[in-house]
Amino acid sequence: MAAMQAQIQALLVAQGGVGVGGVATESNMGPHMEVAKPAIFNGEAGRVGGFITACRLYIKMRLRGNTVEEQIQWVLTYVQGGSADVWKENVMEELEVGEVEYESVEEFFTILRKEFGEGEEESVKAAELRKLEQGGKTMEEFVQEFKRAARGSGYEGRPLVEEFKRGINGGDQKEVDGGGKSANLYQKLVQEGDGIGQKLEGE
User: Fold this and answer.
1) 3-state SS track over 30-54
2) Least confident of 5-14, 49-58, 169-178, 188-197
3) CA-to-CA distance for 74 and 24, rounded, in angstroms?
4) With a threshold of 0.70, does the pTM exceed it?
5) Which residue, among 200, 130, 138, has the nearest Cα to 171 in the 3D structure?
6) 103-139 burial string, b = 16+ CB within 10 Å, else e?
7) Under DSSP, is residue 24 helix (H, G, I), strand (E, B) or coil?
8) What is the pLDDT of residues 11-70, one digit of tens each?
9) Domain-by-domain residue ranges, the chain?
């Protein structure tokens, strides 16, 4: 493990140094275009996709000539804290003793996503649903957009109904409550048998 950590430290120094506690910092890479380094990844499922994208871009721009092992070691310097620490230690040990060997950094990213990506899609869909607003869309358009966003969001029952009501405009909200045209569209949405309807029935 000590040997692996020394290799990582040497790689970081070659790429511009590290900050306090071994956290990589921005560095002056000369006249070349600046490339943002990834934020520290602590194992949070909703962030794994963005972390991999940031790492992939930096490797493409700055580490293309490095070996696969060096690229993976560099990625691991940004895996810190939370549930990621134990996983990182295990990976480093496996690499050091030769238990695993990755043919490419993309293969490593696949393992990383499988390890921490569970629930990521649901988290993204839920965030999308919470931001959804009718705005200038007709009620019909908003109903269709809401149905698409609700699938796979994890929302169901009363919370899903409340999110729908929160997103619609004030005038349509009154119609839903008062039984107007918008209320009919709302009821149609509730009654559809595509899975979303049952969820919108509430409690």
Assistant:
1) CCCCCCCCCCCECCCHHHHHHHHHH
2) 188-197
3) 9
4) no
5) 138
6) eebeebbeebbeebbeebeebebbeebeebebeebeb
7) strand
8) 555 555 443 334 444 444 444 578 899 999 999 877 888 999 999 999 999 999 999 999
9) 2-116, 121-200
